[in-house]
Specification:
The structure holds 2 protein chains of 2 kinds. Chain A is mainly α. Chain A is 63% helix and 5% strand. Chain A has a 3-stranded antiparallel sheet with strand order 2-1-3. By secondary structure, chain B is mainly α. Chain B folds into 2 domains: 152 residues, no CATH class; 236 residues, MetI-like fold (Orthogonal Bundle). The chains are: A mainly alpha, B mainly alpha.
Chain lengths: 428, 461
């Protein structure tokens, strides 16, 4: 008869019970619950930290950017009768008006008027482009050339920053003097929304870049959308399962994950150096971004087509539709909201893309808004990048203001995408 | 007529052909109780395609061939005998002539260009006329041929559908073409680069200073193209610092959202986190350079680190990490929810608390998916450009000090290819070699990540 070794036998034969209400166990449970609460708090903290970063980012952009939409102006009295401007108002009514204006020394006259009005260094209170306003005023109403006029002209960067509460002491002093004479105001800067890039931060505008972005996005959309939808249809509905189809699928999935700068290198090598398309043009930017956006549309399109239930196809086939009719009359219309949502998200990504466009030369300084698809242009995110490189302090608020414009566009696009998804997407 | 006007006219003709043929199709009557094979629309499409496609193909081919023909007839003119022999000089004259003809320049420097201009114009006119006549004939002939085929039993639908299938196939081949274009252009330019610099030196060299000299005989004119400092900088910023930020935050966010948060919180917080991924990278870059980097430098100086740079690796990496949070969190979210409910229930039934279940059961079970997500995030981080261009430096340092300045592959690509460049120099070509390395590494990371995720999914299906 085998005997169990003594040390393996529980000394008291009664089964050992855990004393759940005993102090040791209570302490243990309390510890476990505390650790549970800590873990939960860490999770909450992680989310709140991420959200806080987002809020910080947005708030700091708003705080820096909103002043960028305003501009400080100074009321400049000019005595045209005694100024160096030698224009006869009569010539400004004829055909030679622009020539006469171009020949006149508005810059000198404005500087002289500023010196006369604000003392020796008066011209430095005004923006470098103040004379443009004077010229426009004269163009609008040549009669003022006969006498005196008071024209609102943009103030210099230093004054502008001082008016927004962050100026150097001497600028603050000059501003106080101007304020004492009640000839300074800070108002909405319409020029920022209508002008293009400039060297002086008081004159820059976002319209040139915005128009470039719109042209580029148009090219991207008309290329990427049809190609993306058609290849999604082919892969999901018709493609035979073979090595070629696998190759197409692998290509598309990889293209969606290729870094965007690689597409820029492709655009540079193929579109510019091989096909000799014009540099910096929206058409090249649009082509490059279309290659980048297409895989996104294909993947979204395939998911949308996949979610259309087979019963729809079977029903259509059953009443005699051909395979092409099934897809184009029934599947595609039902999948369209999903495809559109994916397209808008892909386009939003393309709108914010900077790196590939730098590669194809869309970083040039362009001081007028682009006139067509082959004209040199820049786009919003590249404009942000260019302004962020500027040393002048006045560009800080303009950069942030441009970022606000960009974010508003992105938000609107994503809003439309979410609306479409909620409104039209069917759960089968 | 210019090609674009011609194309528009052609499209207009196609529309007319469509409606005419459709009307003709509607007139087809059932014969012997059998309806016509195709519906009127298909006859319309069939005729319209015959009207447009052959003429369009002809115009496309013609637009490639005709400049050569025009040139031929200009050169065969007696006036062209005075042209300099083929080479730079001849090209200069001819280019001036093109400029005059298109109106981009007002007057030619070379009188010969002005002299050749009328000949060029005449030839151009002649060939444009041929193109117009031929295109019109083709369009009419195509439409007429197709129109005569509209019959009761004619299978217009099958023919149109065959073309539709061809278009679909062509559209899906564009993805392959793009991949091929990327690989070919990167390989081609990189091979030229490796003609200047040996691949061994490029991949193992420790010095990076691509500034080539202005004069050819200057000392050190070849530059130094050892890319190891760039690889280190990229890994340091993208794979180390960014991940130190993104993995804990992303993973814990996903855990909280999937396991603890109420559904209402989840529906609000998840899109909110995804906004982080939707903010353009140039905005992050600006934010990193303007706000985060100076704050970090001040902090470092306060802590007594005097070598702190205002273009620190830490600023770029941390901001990049924040951008990556949604990627990690959504991948972790997917893998956590894919863990079978029974495993969770089993653990809870044994008396484990929720956090013990998560740490001991869910996370280990979801680990392959999480690792795959992290690999995808790394691949995205090392390919990210704008944040590092704006916030990281240009100095190619081999350092592990997060407050020092390092540079990355993408920063250098941008640096090498913007500004003044000549396309043949090793400096410009180096960008393509860097691009090739970047492409291959991200491709590998993606393939591995997708394979890991796929295998893991299979394990639970």
């Amino acid at each position: 008869m085998n005997t169990v070794p003594a040390d393996l036998v529980d000394a008291p034969t009664a089964p050992r019970t855990t004393d759940w209400s005993g102090p040791a166990m209570q302490r243990r449970i309390a510890k476990r619950y505390a650790s549970e609460r800590r873990f939960r708090l860490v999770g909450l903290g992680a989310i709140l930290l991420s959200a806080a970063f987002l809020a910080f980012l947005l708030v700091s952009m708003l705080a820096q950017g909103l002043p960028g939409f305003t501009q400080t102006e100074i009321r400049l009295p000019i005595n045209f009768a005694s100024s160096t401007l030698m224009i006869d108002p009569a010539t400004l009514r004829g055909f030679d008006a622009d020539t006469a204006l171009a020949g006149a020394d508005f810059e000198g006259a404005t500087a002289a008027a500023a010196d006369a009005a604000f003392g020796a260094d008066g011209a430095r209170l005004l923006s470098d482009g103040a004379w443009l306003k004077v010229r426009d005023a004269v163009k609008d109403d040549p009669e003022i050339l006969k006498g005196q006029a008071e024209i609102w002209v943009p103030a210099s960067v230093a004054i502008d920053i001082a008016a927004k509460g962050d100026g150097a002491p001497e600028a603050e002093q000059a501003l106080a003097n101007l304020k004492a004479r009640d000839i300074v105001k800070t108002g909405f800067n319409l020029g920022f929304l209508t002008a293009a890039d400039a060297t002086d931060p008081t004159l820059v505008g976002i319209w040139g870049a915005l128009k470039g972005s719109l042209l580029t996005m148009f090219v991207t959309l008309i290329l990427a959308f049809p190609v993306g939808v058609l290849s999604a249809v082919y892969l999901e509905e018709y493609a035979p399962k073979n090595r070629w189809t696998d190759l197409i699928e692998v290509s598309i999935n990889n293209l969606a994950a290729v870094p965007s700068i690689i597409f820029g290198l492709l655009g540079l090598a193929v579109f510019l150096n091989f096909m000799h398309l014009p540099r910096s043009a929206p058409i090249v930017g649009g082509l490059t971004l279309a290659l980048m956006t297409m895989p996104v549309i294909v993947i979204a399109g395939r998911n949308a087509i996949k979610s259309v239930p087979p019963s729809i196809r079977d029903a259509a086939l059953g009443i005699g539709a051909s395979r092409v009719q099934v897809v184009f009359h029934h599947v595609l219309p039902l999948a369209l909201p999903g495809i559109l949502t994916g397209t808008i998200i892909g386009m939003a990504r393309a709108l914010g893309e900077t790196a590939p466009l730098l590669m194809i030369g869309m970083r040039a300084f362009i001081s007028s808004s682009p006139t067509g698809f082959t004209a040199p242009a820049t786009v919003l995110p590249v404009q942000v990048f260019l302004w962020s490189d500027e040393v002048s302090k006045g560009f800080v608020e303009k950069t942030s203001a441009a970022i606000i414009v960009l974010l508003v566009f992105l938000l609107a696009m994503n809003g439309v995408a979410i609306y479409l998804r909620n409104k039209f997407e069917t759960r089968w | 007529m210019s090609p674009s006007t011609l194309l528009l006219l052609l499209l207009g003709f196609g529309v007319i052909a469509f409606f005419t043929a459709r009307a003709r199709g509607q007139l087809l009557k059932p014969a012997g109780g059998v309806r016509p094979h195709s519906r009127p629309n298909y006859h319309g499409w069939y005729v319209a395609l015959w009207a447009i496609v052959p003429a369009a193909i002809f115009l496309f081919v013609w637009s490639i061939v005709s400049p050569g023909l025009v040139m031929q007839s200009v050169l065969s003119d007696p006036a062209a005998a005075q042209l300099p022999p083929p080479g730079m000089d001849r090209d200069a004259v001819l280019n001036e002539m093109y400029g005059l003809a298109s109106g981009t320049i007002e007057a030619a420097f070379n009188p010969l260009a002005e002299q050749l201009l009328p000949i060029y114009r005449a030839a151009d006119h002649f060939y444009a006329l041929i193109a117009t006549v031929a295109a019109v004939l083709l369009a009419f002939a195509g439409a007429a041929f197709a129109f005569t085929r509209i019959k009761h039993e004619f299978r217009a639908r099958t023919r149109v559908e065959r073309i539709v299938m061809g278009v679909l196939l062509a559209a899906s081949l564009i993805a392959i073409l793009t991949t091929f274009g990327i690989v070919a252009s990167l390989l081609f330019e990189s091979l030229r680069f490796f003609g200047h610099v040996s691949p061994i030196e490029f991949l193992t060299g420790l010095t990076w200073s691509p500034q080539t000299a202005i004069r050819a005989d200057q000392v050190g004119s070849s530059g130094a193209f050892g890319a190891v400092p760039l690889f280190w900088g990229t890994i340091f910023i993208g794979a180390i610092i960014a991940m130190v930020v993104a993995i804990p935050l992303g993973l814990m966010s996903a855990i909280y959202l999937t396991q603890y948060a109420r559904p209402a919180v989840r529906t609000w917080m998840k899109p909110l986190l995804e906004i982080l991924a939707g903010v353009p990278t140039v905005v992050y870059g600006y934010f990193a350079a303007l706000t985060i980097a100076p704050a970090l430098r001040d902090f470092a100086v306060m802590m007594g680190i005097t070598s702190a740079s205002s273009e620190s690796a830490l600023a770029a990496g941390a901001v990049m990490g924040v951008m990556i949070i949604p990627f990690v969190s959504s991948m972790a979210d997917d893998s956590l929810t894919a863990v079978p409910q029974s495993m969770r229930d089993g653990s809870l039934a044994m008396g484990a608390t929720t956090s013990e279940t998560i740490r001991r059961v869910l996370v280990p079970a979801a680990l392959p998916g999480v690792v795959g997500g992290v690999l995808l995030a790394v691949s995205r981080a090392i390919g990210e450009t704008m944040i590092v261009v704006m916030a990281a430096g240009l100095a190619a340092n081999l350092t592990a000090n997060p407050f020092a300045s390092v540079t990355t592959v993408t920063t250098q690509i941008v640096q090498l290819l913007t500004g003044d460049q000549e396309f043949e120099s090793a400096k410009t070509l180096a960008a393509f070699a860097l691009g090739l390395v970047l492409f291959l590494v991200t491709l590998m990371l993606n393939i591995i990540a997708l394979r890991v995720v796929k295998k893991y999914r299979e394990a639970y299906e």
